[in-house]
Amino acid sequence: MAQSALADNQGAFVSLGGGRSSFNTSKYLTPPRGGLDPRFNTVVDDRRSHAFNLLAGYRWNVAPSLYLGVEGGYASLGAATAKDSETIVLPGVPYTNSYQINRRQKVRAGLLGINVRWELPYHWMLTAHGGAARYRTTYAGSLYDTINGVVAEPVHAKFGHDNDSYYFGVG
């Protein structure tokens, strides 16, 4: 659902949209179910999040009831999290290794594109927009390890990935 403010037919506009996102998580967030070791246990696997976008731009009247414009903005596609744990016990050997891995993946984007607004009868309108998007995906993880009852120093890692693609929408 989107709401527009200052959205007179021609001129500047601001648009705010919101919704729900669902992640097809990558190998960076969750390994395949069961992984290579059947004792691997996914404790929490949250792949749904809230998403929103904020766009601002300007439209010009190009024909009766038809407006064309430019827009730029920001989108947050939410975050997904996973927490995994495993305990390894070697029979006949005094060795126990327990660990927990916490991972989080977030996606954000800068947007730049065009939009079209067509005014229909009975106060209805159709809006379409699309353009270039610069997506930034960040991954953060922490490893908590215990070997033979001794707690090791936690390991934290964070890295990101940029991707140029497109966005589009109709409403």
- Approximately how much helix is present in the residues? under 10%
- Beta-strand residue percentage: over 45%
Based on helices, strands and strand pairing, what is the structural class?
mainly beta
The helix-strand sequence is EEEEEEEEE
Low-confidence sequence ranges: 1-7, 30-40
Number of helices: 0
The largest pleated sheet is described as: 9 strands, antiparallel
What gross morphology would you assign?
A: rod-shaped
* CA distance, first residue to last residue: 9 Å
**Rg value:** 23 Å
Strand count? 9
Q: Averaging pLDDT over every residue, what do you get?
A: 82
Précis, in short:
By secondary structure, this protein is mainly beta. The protein is built from no helices and 9 strands.
Explain how this protein is built:
Strand 5 (66-89) and strand 6 (96-120) form a beta hairpin. With 171 residues, the protein is mostly beta strands. It has strands spanning 2-5, 11-22, 41-46, 48-63, 66-89, 96-120, 124-147, 150-151, 155-170. Strands 1, 2, 3, 4, 5, 6, 7, 8 and 9 form a nine-stranded antiparallel sheet that branches. Helix content is 0%, strand content 75%.
Supply database-style keywords.
mainly beta; 171 residues; 0% helix; 9-stranded antiparallel beta sheet
